[in-house]
Write the structure tokens for this entry.
Amino acid sequence: MKTRFEVCPAADLGPGERTIADLDGLSVGVFNVDGDYHALKNDCPHQRAPLCEGSLTGLTTADSPGEFEYERDGEIVRCPWHGWEFEVTTGESVFNPHRVKAKTFETSVEDSDDPETVETSEPASAKAGRLDFSTGTTADDADTEEKATTEDDRYGVALAGEEPPVDTYDVDVEEGVVVVYL
Amino acid sequence: MAERAHPGFDGAGADGELTLIDADVHQRWADESEIVQYLPERYRDDGLVLPTLLYRNPGGYFKDDEFTDDGRTPGSDLEKIVDDHLDRYGIDYAMFTGNSWLNLGAVPNRDYAGAVAEAYNRWLIEECLSVDERFLGSIFVPVRDPERGAELIREYGEFPQVRQVMLPGGSEVPYGRPQYWPIYDAAQEQNLAVAVHPFSEGHGVSNPPTGAGHPNNYIEWHTLLGTIFMGQLASMITEGVFVEYPELRVSFIEGGYGWVPHFMWRMDKNWKGLRSQVPWLEKPPSEYIREQVWFASQPVEEPERPEHHSHLMEMVHAEETLIFASDYPHWDGDSPVWGLPPMDDDLERAVRYENAQRLWDLPADPGDLA
């Protein structure tokens, strides 16, 4: 069964934006591309650079030598080390989409299990302790081994207080949280 | 978190052994005033006037994750080099190769180039090497004024952490010419290696970066860096540099090594029939390479089939000739953990530190450098 992680309030991650989250030791980049959320492992398959911290760019194409088209702006992430281009939406590399891929994860926008999370990202981050919304994550954190967790940890309620105040906040889907399933 | 080596390699860091020597780490100034303060008064108002690279890299030239928190250029914060690179990867020695934009071989005025080289050397010794005993230095020379270069080598080469003299890959005439020999004479006398590293190819007054002419794009420029090295190495061997200076040690940094087997085979083959043109050579050209020349691993060759890299290691005599380089913090750098393809532990030890230890005559403990 996949583990559910609440990453951040959907309202905090607008189109064209991204965040790097530490999900129980696994560094994951979460991107909003034109309103859809996509998650990639922050670990380039080449030399394990923090892929998701690279620049967001578009795709240059050509119908014939010397001609340039620039399309799909914001849908390509360029590895911060060697410049390899990957499609944010699929994890596939541009130069060899069938064999060179970054791992992707399922995402959705859902009601939060912990309604305080949706109020504002920073207190939630501090409280949850394992959600890092900063983009300062380095390859150090790109650990492929998922740490053992308790059931509570996995569902993001262990550090949320003795009795999460579930009745204090009315949430609909548009105001929900971005969720990644590992 | 230290990452000493990739899983499966247990040959590093044993008792009294080194772990890793990095042959190419680019430190730079945060602001050019750091260098300008060392210029003679007559040039201080000019500041740094240097030819720049006109080939554009769409991803930039740096590891993007190495900019400092306040946005300074990677390599300009020496403590960050210690934290993010030396400590993180257990690096015993890191050879500083300076700012690639210095381009002294492409500066038209020889006196100014000499003044900038000296300013760089003073900054290197006084402000860079003092930060950590694991830092090693490459001193710069104005290659178009070799006598002045030799003076600088004798003046600054005494400093214990200085182990190398840097020549730019691009030059006005190839490096075997006797006009350069004062540089080699001084380097051998000071027990310093000489390194050739891409800097000035196609900039300023240097030659086009390929024998075919000026490329159109950076991909073409970067792919062909090894071809300039072939020209420099052929010149040094055939003109007799390694005969005249039998203790001289030379390294070629960042030009690759996949071309080296072809180069050795072709030159040995030609030597059999054309030896009479170079009668001072006392043995096949490839033997001079194996005894006096080293090649840095970065950018690591990535053949279509991984086993071809093992074949290449054998063909290039990597156990004698190859040294690890990361090229930190540049975009095309190799990870100290994941950059090198798989190889057996004896060979990996040679590549990770034994060969570089010979090249720069380094003690096992940086504290013993003197």
User: Anything to note?
Assistant: The first strand of chain A starts at residue 4 and ends at 9. Helices of chain A lie at 121-128, 151-154. The interface with chain B takes residues 47-50, 53-55, 57, 78-83, 136, 138-140 of chain A (CB under 8 Å).
